[in-house]
Amino acid sequence: MGQRRPWEVDDGLWERIEPLLPRVERRFRHPGRKRLDDRKALCGIMFVLYTAIPWEFLPQELGYGSGMTCWRRLRDWTEAGVWQQLHELLLAELNGANLLDWSRAAVEGSHVRALKGGRKPARARSIEPVSGRNTM
After folding, report:
1. How far is CA 87 from CA 55, 70, 83, 109, in A?
2. Does any domain span residue 78?
3. pTM as predicted
4. For the chain, how many structural domains are there in total?
5. Has residue 67 been placed in a domain?
6. Residue 24: which residues within 8 A CB-CB, separation 6 or more?
7. Residue 63 lies in a domain
8. What residues contact 42, with CB distance under 8 A and at least 6 apart?
9. What domain of life does the native source organism fall in (predicted)?
């Protein structure tokens, strides 16, 4: 059996991801072209991210749809919060299996404003010895 390519999503991971993806119903009256399978689109997204090629150069021969289709799917899934939900799900599973080493965890919150009594940032001090005319 050959080695799995890094951009191909295995069945175990797909079982976790699929329920998080938004359902898109096909129109009844004017259905248009059939939508690309979500798993194939995910593999296309993974291929582009893994190889760092531009979206428009995604090879059609792989069967993952066009680069634009994969890019739109990534955008839609990001807006729907799929990646955050998946991250939380995987963290919970790893934590439940006692596979996370929390002693090495780091929390960084410098970009989040402290609410309810947190220090307010002070004005930056001037490094000029004398105030300029435009600061009076």
Report:
1. 24, 20, 6, 18
2. yes
3. 0.71
4. 1
5. yes
6. 35
7. yes
8. 9, 14, 17, 73
9. Bacteria
CA distance 118 to 120: 6
For 49, 78, 86, 96, the CA distances from 89, given in Å and listed in that order, are 22, 16, 5, 10
Q: Where in the sequence is the domain holding 57, given as residue range(s)? A: 35-97
Give the pLDDT confidence of 77-127 residue by residue, as tens digits: 999 999 999 999 999 999 999 998 888 877 777 766 667 766 666 776 767
Spatial distance between the Cα atoms of 9 and 22, rounded to a whole number of angstroms: 18
Q: Which two tokens stand for residue 126?
A: 């001037």
Are the C-beta atoms of 48 and 104 separated by less than 8 Å?
Answer: no
Which of 58, 33, 39, 40 shows the shortest CA–CA distance to 48? Answer: 58
Query: In this structure, are residues 21 and 82 in contact, taking their beta carbons and an 8 Å threshold?
Result: yes
Q: Which two tokens stand for residue 4?
A: 């799995």
